[in-house]
Specification:
Layout (H helix, E strand, L loop, with lengths): L2 E5 L9 H6 L2 E6 L2 E3 L13 E5 L2 E4 L5 E6 L5 E7 L2 E5 L4 H31 L8 H33 L6 H15 L2 H13 L3 H23 L10
Antiparallel strand pairs: 1-2, 1-8, 2-3, 3-4, 4-5, 5-6, 6-7, 7-8
């Protein structure tokens, strides 16, 4: 029973899916008891459950029961909290979503910040970055795309903060702008991968590794956007 679960009743056809993807339920075992964080008493304290029948759990000192449905292989398939909510085992990749997204954002931020820093250092030391014309344009395209993607992410953070704090409702214009910037920014994978391929082919190992890491950052951010439904056409919620 112990493990990570998601609530079956959730948004799935719009950008709110990202919230449900990031909020999961960790069922833990404490001796003979189970703790389900969202199964709480009136004070908000999780109520311990004890097994009273095979795969049937009941509140300690209470009457509420939680039933478990097993798959053919004996693994937990669903946990029934009440008629309106069921917990389903979380897919294995869900735990990687946040670390991958944070790492991807960090790489893109570092790449963007390093751009003017490298230009200033090169100017002061009279050692400008010497790249072939094609690589120079690919580098510019990569960094512009990174800026656009980060701007789109900033708009998503703004929309989320408005919803979570109750300070307002994000407008359709804000949401569409966030989608547009995110989608355009993710296209930065194309010039980045092209630049990485040229660098590997030319045995310029340092530039090849840097370009490859940035390309992976675009992939990671794209996986987060797709998994979270940030690019879905429906923005009603």
């Amino acid at each position: 029973m112990a493990g990570t679960y998601v609530i079956s009743r959730r948004a799935d056809s719009n950008f709110v899916r990202v919230y449900d993807a990031l909020t999961n339920v960790a069922i833990t075992a404490h001796g003979d008891n189970l703790i389900i964080p969202i199964h709480v008493d009136s004070a908000g304290v999780p109520m311990p459950l004890v097994e009273v029948e095979p795969w049937v759990w009941q509140e300690v000192g209470g009457d509420t029961r939680v039933g478990v449905r097993l798959a053919d292989d004996g693994s937990v398939e669903a946990v029934g909290l009440n008629p309106g909510f069921t917990l389903l085992p979380a897919p294995w990749w869900l735990g990687l979503l946040v670390p991958v997204a944070l790492a991807s954002v960090a790489v893109l931020v570092i790449a963007v910040v390093a751009w003017p820093v490298r230009a200033i250092v090169g100017w002061r030391l009279r050692a400008p970055l010497d790249l072939p014309p094609t690589d120079r344009w690919l580098r510019v395209a990569t960094l512009v795309a990174a800026i656009v993607a980060l701007a789109g992410l900033a708009l998503w953070v703004l929309a989320a903060s408005m919803l979570l704090t109750g300070s307002g409702t994000p407008s359709d214009l804000l949401l569409r702008a966030a989608q547009l910037l995110t989608g355009l920014g993710l296209l930065g994978f194309v010039p980045t991968a092209w630049r990485a391929a040229r660098a590997w082919g030319g045995r310029r190992w340092f530039h090849a590794v840097l370009a490859s890491v940035i390309a992976l950052a675009f992939v990671g951010l794209g996986a987060f956007a797709v998994s979270g439904g940030l690019l879905l056409p429906d923005i009603t919620f």
